[in-house]
Amino acid sequence: MKRITGGIATTALLAGMGLAQPAGAESTIAWSIGTLGAPGAIDTPTAEVFRDGELVGSLSGYQGSQRANFSFQVFPRLTATVRYSREQGLDAGDTLKDRSLDLHLQLVNEKGWRPAFAVGLRDIFDNGIYASEYVVATKTLSPRLRASVGWGWGRLGSDGSGGGTRPAPSTTGGLNSEAWFKGPSAPFASLAWQATEKLTLKAEYSKDAYAAQEAAGEIDVKTPFNFGVDYKINQIASVSGYVLHGDKLGLQFNIALDPRHPVAPSGLERAPIPVAPRPARTTNPDAWSTDWANDSTARPAIQTAIADALRKDGQVLESLKLSPTSADLRISNETYRANPQAIGHAARIATRALPASVETIKITLVERGMPASTTTLSRSDIERLENGPSTQIAAVAQIGEAERGAQGYTQTAGLYPRLLWGIGPYLELSPFDPGEGLHADMGFAIKARYELAPGMIIAGEVRQKVLGNLDEVTTTSTSTAPHVRTDIYEYQKHGDLALQNLTFAAYGRPGKDLYSRVTVGYLERMYGGISGELLWKPVDSRLALGAELNWVKQRDFDQRFGFQDYDTVTGFLSAYYDFGDGLTGQLDVGRYLAEDWGATISLDREMANGWKIGAFATFTDMSEEEFGDGHFDKGIRLTIPLGYATGQPSLKSFSTTIRPSVGDGGAQVNVDGRLYETLEGSHQGGLYRDWGRFWR
Amino acid sequence: MSRAPRALIGAVLGLGLLAGCSSHDSAGVQDGGSVGGTMVKSAFGKILPGKKAAAAPAAPSDPASLAAAALQSIQGPVILVTFEAGGASTVGAMRGENGAMRTYQTPDARAFILRDGLLAGTRGLGRDLMSADTAAAGALIHARKAGTAKRTYRYLDGDGAERPLPVSCTIQPAGMVDQGGISAQQVAEHCEGSGVTLDLSYLVDGNGTILASRQWIGPALGYVAIQQLRN
């Protein structure tokens, strides 16, 4: 085998490429996931962390207790876990359905003789059935053996001593900070042994008394020792089994998604068409003649050749402008998530179709009919730098504002009108609600898009439920504000031929650096109306500014064509800022659906492989009481590109937004095809982020 | 692990074909291969210490018949590529030529990019070599001269960014191989750096053409044996 001798940069590279880690280089990456979904042995925590950006979902439980944990490694040292749990007998004899949030912070990494140290807070809000605080140290004793020792308060120290009485938890939904690190405390310890590559054995000493569970007759704690075993099914999935305090047999299923571990980092799509260099001018001057420009058959033949080759490549040649020395290709990339890859393909195809006298090749990305940006390349550079480092071609490629209008361009024949449609499954979950179990519907969705002309688009989606229990949800909105979002339960009960949206949208370029959108129709499942937007976004600017105005009317619960009485005007002024490294901030200020005024702040991080993780919070003049549970609107959103899992090129992605609570304050109407997200990947920030795929 | 023998058996198999064994008699070609392989293997053993000679396991696709069929059906330059890990073989037909760079495409639309015979990229393999600086090493190898050269391999890593993997290489010519009227010199290249150690080898004819080689795609895909079936 290859000898691997270290080197931090390469270690990261090799890790990204799915090669085995050199022992010790990332020693505190978790070997095992605890029953609460964070790095841990069984019930006790360790000072390990997940990989940066990793998402870990786990289902764990024993008879009488079930937990669904969702952990995210927010920063290299900070793990956040949200949890939905059911504990039998803990709600005055009934099943307690609860949600909780944990934070786990690694203070220092393992280094030389020094162990890793971490501190953590479990279940920091509300009634806190898992509430614990801990400090813990973890040391890798051998490449296969790790030991952790720590001290815990709350549940982890509940069979301990000292500290007096722990203050009672908050019952109003606030932080339990008064109880932190108070009350009885006790040590805990654990060992993890990687018996084989697939199998890890775990043992722990835990002074969690399980007092409430024991009182409810759900568990009989016989010993402070727990034992467990993990079996790694593959890179992503693992199962664990454990014996809890000599009494209960538990089972856990884990899914760990590391954004840096796509199936195929460079993609499995077919190889691009190579560059065809021109003959040397000195030996073949005839080939460089510009006589072709006077031949009326030449231009259509060139356009057809490029259009056909692009179509086979999954792209559309919208239009072409040709002069004896330059060619302007307007392309719609319908296949590649990274636009530089589409530009690179178009440039290479152009070298095979264009007469030798054409030296300047301009490629304009068209997004929903709008010329979004133009990349200007000299043909000599394409020939000279083919398959070299992407930084070399980046240095000579000029990315700038696209020409507006269609002056001089010949549209490719037969493109419009164009119908695209697809059918696929959908899964819909009920909002995260502690009082209700999790309800869900599954079915299929038909989506269609009919493009009348560039930028004139009719689009719609209809869903048909096949099975599910969303119609059994008994929760109803008790909001005192207009029910602009809290009637979600009513909408979710109607899954039969529900019209998700049906709109006509017109996109345009009203001026330099300006983009516009008007959308009319059934904008989203709850609202119909008209939405207009204007965006100022220079191609090379980090800053973008937008304005949006909507008049909307609330739709009937059955999501057919009818409307309810409530209508309103809502709109925002927005500022967007690209901080670099894929980090984008957005500030919206304006009037929300319930006629409350305020601002939304969001932060999104997008990787060059298409993963996007973001968080948002909205503060409006609606009172916390009127908003209800959760006090204000906030959430996290996640986008996973389909190509991450398949390795195939695709614009499709899986997106979800998780809100801890649903309220009527700070709600915005959802309109498809907002301008910033439509253009972001075609402007300089997005193009440079993805530029490594130019020669792919 | 035994990588060298398989690569070298392949190398001489390539030589056999180049030498005009185009009777498409696969049995004959394989025969020549195994005899020559032993010979080259022992020659390489001297300059690349630490290599163990071991029998190559049977490859899933029979390279000899693949090569013969490719030569018959494809016009122009053809290469045969065999992955050391797994032993899969595929043929590549020249799809593009840009100066010294040639793009060979396989029947399933994957590509191997060679610059003067040195692997400069792959496409469509999932963990592709995106680019490689081969000029310095290439000059020594084609001249069959000893010396040192720097190489940089580049990959798209897990988060989608292009990352370099620089290595320093020592190039060392070794013995001559005569096979079927063609004589070629063995050249070995040993590279270290960025946590990897690579052993590459080439058979270079009198014109500086690389007839057969053992080259490296990257950490995930490992080594390939590349034979120039027709140049």
From TrEMBL, chain A:
Keywords on this record? Answer: Signal
> InterPro entries this protein is in?
YbjH
Q: Which residues cross the membrane?
A: none
Extent of the signal sequence: 1-25
Coiled-coil stretches noted in the UniProt entry, renumbered to this chain: none
Q: Locate the compositionally biased regions of type Polar residues.
A: 282-293
Where do the segments described as Disordered lie? 268-293
Point to the regions of Low complexity compositional bias.
270-281
Against Pfam families, the record matches this protein to:
YjbH
Q: What is this protein called?
A: Exopolysaccharide biosynthesis protein YbjH
Could you tell me which species this protein originates from?
Thioclava pacifica DSM 10166
Automatic annotation (TrEMBL), chain B:
Q: Does the keyword Signal apply?
A: yes
Q: May I ask which residue range the UniProt record assigns to the signal sequence?
A: 1-27
Superkingdom:
Bacteria
Asked whether the keyword Signal is assigned, the reply is: yes
Which keywords annotate this record? Signal
User: Which SUPFAM superfamilies does this entry report, sorted A to Z?
Assistant: YmcC-like (SSF159270)
**Membrane-spanning residues:** none
Protein name, as recorded: YjbF family lipoprotein
